[in-house]
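Show me a record, fold above all:
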Amino acid sequence: MSLDEAVLGTEYMIKDISTSDEEMKSFLFSLGCYSGEPITVVSRKKNNCVVSIKDGRYNIDIDLAKAILI
C-alpha cells in the first residue's frame, strides 16, 4: 500500500521507496524518509499530504506519497 492510501493519524512503517528517480529518492532520504522509519499522514488536501517523519512535518505532493510504500 502506498502512503496516499494511508488512514489519517495512523502511524505506519516505511517499507520501501518505489521510484526509479534518484533525485526523488535522495530528496525523501534527506527528509528522513527511508525503510524502517515510522511515518504518519497528519492531513490531506487535494494534491498534497502533510506527513510527520521523526520530529518534522512536511508537505509532500501526491506523486511523492505514491512512491512511499508502507
User: Anything to note?
Assistant: The first strand starts at residue 11 and ends at 13. The CA atoms of residues 45 and 61 lie 9 Å apart. The radius of gyration is 11 Å.
